[in-house]
Amino acid sequence: MKPLRILQVGYFERKRLQRRWFNTEHKLAQGLARAGHFVLRFSDRDEARGATLIASRRIGAKRMNERLVETARHFRPQMILFHHADLITADTYGSLREVSPGARLTQVCVDPVERPATMAAFSARAAHVDISFMTTADSEALRRLAPREGSITFLPNPVDPSVETARVFDFPAAGLPWDGIFLGKGYGNREEQLAEIKEELPEGFRFHVEGGAFNTRRLSSLEFLETLANGAMSPSIPIDDGAPVPFLFSSDRIAQLLGQGVAALTPASARQSTLYDDGVVEFASRAECAAAMADLWRDDVKRRQIGETGWRIAHSRTNSTRVARYLCEAVFRETFSEPYEWPVERR
Question: Is residue 339 part of a domain?
Answer without folding.
Answer: no
